[in-house]
Amino acid sequence: MALALSLIVGLNPVEVWRETMDNRKVLKILDKPGGNERVLILRRADGAFSYALQWRQDGEWSKIGFDVGIYDSADTAETEAMQRVAWLKAGFH
User: Angle at Cα 16 formed by Cα 92 and Cα 1, nearest 5°?
Assistant: First the structure.
């Protein structure tokens, strides 16, 4: 199964940056095939990294969920997401 990977470049900035009041910056988006769920790789306000889940409801993206873990790099956060989020794990194993 191929997964759609999207970098922040080329995405609608209004949609992606809507939830930045908490000072988390979206670095990368991993989209689930079908387009109703995605994982956001984030840089936190404290300089650490994390990932969060987001779902599409009634055609609109929900608020960005809570941070899942705190990591030393964006790569580590992405690796952890790929090991812990079922649909990501299934796509790479």
Answer: 20
